[in-house]
Each structure stands twice: as C-alpha cells, then as structure tokens.
Amino acid sequence: MAGCFLSLELDDFGIKARIVASGYKQNLIKDHCHVLFKDLPVLEEKFEPFDAGMDMVAQLLDLQPCSTAIIFVSPLSICFRNIEFPFGSEKKIKQILTFELENQLPLINEAYISDFHMLDIGKESNLILSASIVEAQIEKFFLKLDSFGIKPLIVTPGGYASAISFLRENKNIPSFVFIHVRDSEITLVLVNNGQPCAVRRFVSSLNSSEDLDTCIKQTIMGFNQRIGVDILFDIFISSEEENLEAERIYNALKRKDFPRLQQKIDSTDSLVNISPDKAGAYLLNFCQGSYGSSSFVKTYFSNIAACAALCIIVFSLFLVNFGFDNTRLNKEIAAIDNRALSIFNETFPDKKKVQDPYLQMKANVREEIKKSNKSGNKDQRINNVKVVEIMGELSRKIVSSIDIETTRFLFNNGRLLLSGSTDNFNTVDNIKSKIESSDLFKNVSISSAAADKKGNRVNFKFIIEM
User: CA 268 from chain center: how many Å?
Assistant: First the structure.
C-alpha cells in the first residue's frame, strides 16, 4: 500500500475512517470503517470520544502503511467570518487576523487557529473569508495520531472541502450554491467566479426544507447586494449515497420548483480525491504554526534569503578585492619587465629586437662566458682561417636550391654575423642545420627570425661562432 494516507471524517456521531491510496487521476479507498461514539465502551471517568474512537479504528483497520492523514472536521465546530480590511497585503492580514477576530469568536478564553483566503468580488475592497477552530481540538488530533506514527497534514471543514473538490472537478461551473448534507449537519457554500465567498452551517435536525429554502435565498440575495450584481446560481446537493436527509431536502426543493436546482453529488468521491500533500487553492487548513507541515525552506525562507544575500555581497566584495590585487600585481610585473628590458638594452646595445629579455639575456650571457673562456684558442684558430674559405664553406653547405638572399656578412673577432631573408621559418631552421654540419663552425644560433612587413618573406640573423 505504498502512497497510502488516512482520511478521517468527523461529526458529532462518530468517525468515518478510510485508508486511501493516491492514484494518478483519482484516489482509491483500500479499506474503511465507521465508528459510532455511542457504541464505544466508557472505560474511564474522563471519556474522550475521539481518542476512544481512534483506538477502535486502529483495531478495525491496518494503519501501519499510513504516515500522513487528512481530517475533515464538522463545520459546526468552525467559526466562519467575512471581514473587510483597508489593505490587501496577505502578509499584513495574517499578522493582525488574530486581533481582528478576537471579539468575533464565541469562546473568549480559548486560543484559536485561523486560516483565510482573499475574495475578488469586483469592488475596490479587501474582503476575506476566514475560518477559525479551537486550538485544543487540533492539539488533540495531533497527539492521538502521533501515537500511531501518523501526522495530519490537512485539517479542514468537511462540507467546505467537498465544495472545493467539486469546484476543481467542474471548472466550467464558476458560480453555484453547494449544499453538503450529513445526518447531523448541513453546510452551505456559495461559490462565485471560481471562489468560495460565503459559508453557512446548520444542525440538520433543526432545519425544515422551508428554513433551508429561505436560507439559500437570503444567502444569494445578501451576496448580490454586496457586489451590486444579480447572479443566478446553480444549486447542487451533496451527500453520501442513500442519505435520507439529503433525499428529503432535494425532493422538497424540487416540489417548490426551486430555480436552477441541479443533480445530487456523491460527497464520498469528492472528499477522497483530496490528498494531504496537495492542498490546492482555497482549501482552508488549520495545520498552522507549530502544527504546520511547511518544509524547512518555506518555514525559514526569509532567513535563508538573508543569508544568501549576505553570501552574495561577501563574494562580490571578494571578487572586487581580487580584481584590485590582480591589477596591482600586473602593474608591478610590467614595471619589472620594463626594468629588465632596460638592463638588457644597456648590456647588449647591438640587439635591436627583443622578444623575451630574460631568455635572450641568459643566452647572450652564456655565449659571452664561453667566448671569454675560449678566446685564446679561437684567436689562434681564426688566424689560420681566411674569409674566402669561410665564404666558400657557406656556399658549399647552403646549396643553390635553397631560397636565400644574403643582405649582411660580417666577420669580426671570431664571430660571423650572417643576415638575410628566405621564404619561410622552416628554411631558416634548414639553413642553420646545414651550417652546423660544417667542421669549420663551432656554434650556430638564430639571433632573430621574423616575417617582414609584407608577410611573404622571413628575415633572419645568424650568429656563427668559429
């Protein structure tokens, strides 16, 4: 029975308990029972009908698969009010609703739990429909069901909830009067433009069909006077199957040729299709405050939002500070690079084009060290070599098939500077390899290699050590 919940329908006579399985399109009743308070044994001096009734339900039904519950309480235990406020903020209304209802609730010394929804009646007014129940009743429900490991997620008026369910399933009927009939009570809900706007409830044994007829007409007339428009309401009778009281009321209204009287509705299907995890719009729920089932995020949303905003501000400040530090470091690095370039130009004035002063300085210093260490041997070797021999050796190594144009040939102090241009960078490397293959030359390095302004030739400069 995965996905099952407990549905309880309460009135002055007893408890109707159903184990309901949540379905994709509709819910299914897996098991049910009806416990009457008059049949329960009175074992204690302080008899609690609900507690004793639930003990009997636990004996008749297997409650183990159920972890949540929805409770439909008798509308006779609910105080409904229509109140107008000078502002339309639901947050503000929620804050002052308790004080506004303080003088309108019957039991002065009792704490109440209230819920409400805003009404859009086409005027510039902020009217609400509120419902209030004694908090001790909600506490009693929670304490008893907790002993079975069950948590109520919705506690709502039964007849009103049946009207809301009917409204969801019949969205094409936006305005109607819904009369929910049980053996002990009658609930009248007036729905206009898809919103439940007024609720009245009666003890069924004290109301004749004539009284109900008058009540319906007065409710409709009072609402039409409030909004200033005459609306024709369809009338639906809702009850369980074979309810004699509902049959009597329906036939009495039919004999009076009551205008727009429609068919009877099975209230069991309407209530079963309300799930504890899907309250939906306009369904009043007394699971408020400490009895609420809101998620952690929803309950502490304002605190979480404040923390998130603070984290964003702190992270933004960190990024700004990081950006300033990065800019400062880049400036310091640029200053050091400029200083290194200046030192390189002062040390090697013959180097006109500098790409990386650090690497080029390292290479040039290494060359100067080698030259100073071997200058005696080089001078001795160079004295025996003629420039004509050098040129001849270069001509033999650089064959005519290589595209090369020599622009400078300088031999000085055991070093040969050879400048020119060729077709691409690969040819520059090829020429270097050819020259290095000669026994006459000790070391060959590429001082520079770069494309000319037109981009179709590569200018190069070799430094050849003898």
Answer: 36
